[in-house]
Design a protein that fits this description.
six-stranded parallel beta sheet, 17 strands, binds 6-O-phosphono-beta-D-glucopyranose
């Protein structure tokens, strides 16, 4: 891939965790791979009272902690990283930033004025920041201006609509990059390749052959130090509306007309429009109580630091959805995600219909177990198809075996999701970003659960969720 045009990459929230752990390391790796122009600039914006020199030092430390090559860290942050301080987020702050950017661009010969502005901010700060950017003229430049917005995009349908309207007052949709970091994962993009580069799957990817689909994103981690954010969010807003829904739409969409952003995003949106209204009886919300993850004893959610007493926030959710299309009508899609579950696992399990007649029953062998395709997104990325073979010799017996592929056995380098996504922002490719219509449709699907949340059930940390959720799994636990 050829080197990109030089640009100024502006990070709002430049001293924050996301900038330090993900964005600066991703930019440095892109620069190390020769994909980011060496003439590019990075500007961190935040409230801290610091200056360019101290900011550079702290950024280099963060990069070293993230395991980035020291020379590459020095090259990007030694000279081309800048700090711009905001005092009260008022118009003067934004005007001063506009003037500073122009001055830096002039000084470093970036007359092209290509700008990417990344909002790595708490969601409450999005509307005012976007408005001020527009008022200060930071929504346009001689080159491109692209706005990257972190999740969560809204907290329900209404707030997502308002935020879309607010952004569209100042930026057009071609300038907006709504991030869902799951789309930056190679294994998630591989869903498209798996389906559309291999003709054998298309003929079985439908209601005639598929009995049910389960999408699981299980985490062993708890809420950690994020209770302040998480308790106001919960698993539906934090994981289902975005990450699991992305997996669902990529899995279920029709063949797009082309491998282009508009075509792919439009097919994903159509899946969301076809989801039948959720019946709250088909949803289980859960919250973890104390338990053990491996050998480690961990506290329950209500005992985590910062969680308000009696919180009813769900740390787990399982649900059944139906997609009313010719392809999927009648096939249950089970979504399930939770914190403090038995282990970290993101996986799509496709259970195929069993053979109509069990031919080997007469030989005393039952082979009713349906074939299953497991697409494992993390960890141990890969896939496996589980089916029956004859065990050699007598008596006549069948055994289920996997035909499998693991990424790490063939490829050593799996780039970080943010590396892929930032490269796409800088190249102007919106395929892996969420369109305004798509984000609203996704909130619309889950709105009934937000308005009328089902009761909270409990599950011990280290389990697979509340027992009530067992009805919403496809029962392939032995394969996990
Ligand atoms: C984030 C959520 O978007 O995704 C976190 O806010 C969650 O709560 C994380 O832990 C999971 O991401 P990954 O890439 O580790 O699966």
């Amino acid at each position: 891939m050829k080197e990109l045009e030089p640009s100024a990459f502006v990070i709002f929230g430049g001293t924050g965790d996301l900038a330090r752990r993900k964005l600066l390391p991703a930019l440095t790796r892109l620069s190390q791979k020769g994909l980011l122009s060496p003439r590019s600039l990075v500007v961190g914006v935040a409230h801290e009272d610091t200056d360019d020199e101290a900011y550079r030092k702290s950024a280099i430390n963060a990069l070293l902690e993230a395991g980035v090559d020291p020379d590459a860290a020095q090259r990007l942050c030694g000279e081309r990283l800048f700090y711009h301080r905001f005092t009260n987020d008022g118009p003067e702050d934004f005007n001063a930033l506009a003037a500073r950017l122009s001055a830096l661009e002039q000084q470093y010969g970036l007359g092209s004025q290509n700008r990417a502005i990344y909002l790595a901010l708490p969601p409450l700060a999005f509307p005012a920041t976007i408005q001020r950017l527009g008022e200060a003229g930071l929504n346009r430049s001689a080159g491109y201006t692209r706005l990257v917005i972190e999740k969560p995009f809204g907290r329900d349908l209404e707030s997502a609509r308002e935020l879309n309207q607010q952004v569209h007052r100042h930026f057009n949709e071609r300038q907006i990059y709504r991030i869902d970091h799951y789309l930056g994962k190679d294994t998630v993009q591989n869903l498209l390749v798996f389906r559309f580069a291999n003709s054998i799957f298309e003929s079985v990817w439908n209601r005639d052959r598929v009995e049910s689909v389960q999408i699981t994103v299980a985490e062993a981690l708890g809420v950690g130090t994020r209770a302040n954010y998480y308790d106001r969010s919960g698993a539906i807003r934090d994981m289902v509306q975005n990450h699991l829904t992305q997996l669902l739409t990529l899995f279920a969409m029709e063949v797009p007309a082309a491998f282009r952003a508009e075509a792919i995003r439009s097919e994903k949106t159509k899946v969301l429009q076809s989801i039948a209204p959720i019946d709250c009886a088909n949803v289980v919300r859960g919250q973890y109580t104390q338990g053990a993850i491996g050998a480690e004893q961990v506290p329950g959610y209500l005992d985590e630091r910062g969680v308000p007493a009696g919180s009813q926030t769900e740390t787990f959710v399982a649900m059944k959805l139906e997609i009313d299309t010719w392809r999927w009508q009648g096939v249950p899609f089970y979504l399930r995600t939770g914190k403090r579950m038995a282990r970290r696992l993101s996986q799509i399990a496709v259970r195929f219909r069993a053979v109509p007649v069990s031919l080997f029953r007469s030989a005393g062998t039952v082979c009713d177990s349906p074939d299953v395709l497991l697409i494992t997104l993390q960890p141990d990325e890969g896939f496996s198809l589980h089916f029956d073979v004859k065990v050699p010799g007598s008596p006549f017996r069948l055994r289920r075996i996997p035909l499998s592929f693991k990424y790490h056995e063939l490829f050593s380098d799996m780039p970080e999701a943010y590396e892929t996504l930032l490269l796409d922002v800088l190249s102007g490719d919106q395929t892996l970003f969420v369109h305004s219509e798509e984000v609203e449709e996704s909130w619309r699907v889950y709105q009934p659960l937000l308005v009328n949340p089902p009761p909270i059930r409990t599950y011990p940390a280290g389990s697979w969720g509340p027992k009530e959720s067992e009805a919403f799994t496809i029962g392939e636990q032995e394969l996990w």
